[in-house]
Amino acid sequence: MLAIATTAEERIQIELLPPDCLSLETTRLWVRKEACLKAIGIGLLIELATFPAWNIKQQWTTVIFGSYVLAVNDFCCGEDTVVSIATTQSTPIFVRHYSLDWSAIAKDIGEIE
């Protein structure tokens, strides 16, 4: 996944991560890219390696991609959940979220007693 979904700079940053952070940070990067690309209406139709989204850490950050200017934010929602929000001036806010622990989500929505 890393070879097709990350830029060269992102791969360098990922290689520097401690092993115990690797899963969370690569998931965070994927969710962030997906939120950004959906906010500009492209979705996953482009090669993710052409879209840089590494240095966004729990604060609103401006990302410029071609003619698009996005505001992006990651949120801390527990150890096993990753949330990114991306928006442009002309699009609604898109929230992408992924939990590494699906039972936690199911409990939140009442599917598991």
Quick take:
By secondary structure, the protein is an alpha+beta fold.
User: What count of structural domains?
Assistant: 1
Largest sheet: 4 strands, antiparallel
Total beta strands: 4
| Series of H and E elements | HHHEEEEH
Write down the Rg.
Answer: 14 Å
Could you say which overall geometry the principal axes of the C-alpha atoms support? Answer: globular
Helix content percent band: 25-40%
Number of helices: 4
Q: Can you list the strand order of the major beta sheet? A: 1-2-3-4
Strand content: 15-25%
CA-to-CA gap between the ends? 34 Å
Q: What structural category characterises the helix and strand content? A: alpha+beta
Helices and strands, with pairings:
Blueprint: H1 2-5, H2 8-15, H3 22-39, E1 61-65, E2 68-76, E3 81-87, E4 94-99, H4 102-108
Antiparallel strand pairs: 1-2, 2-3, 3-4
Question: What do you see in this structure?
Answer:
The protein is α+β, with helices and mostly antiparallel strands. It has one domain (2-108). It is built from four helices and four strands, in the order αααββββα. The protein has a four-stranded antiparallel beta sheet. A hairpin with a 2-residue loop joins β1 and β2 (68-76).
Q: What are the defining features of this structure?
A:
4-stranded antiparallel beta sheet, 4 helices, disordered C terminus, 113 residues
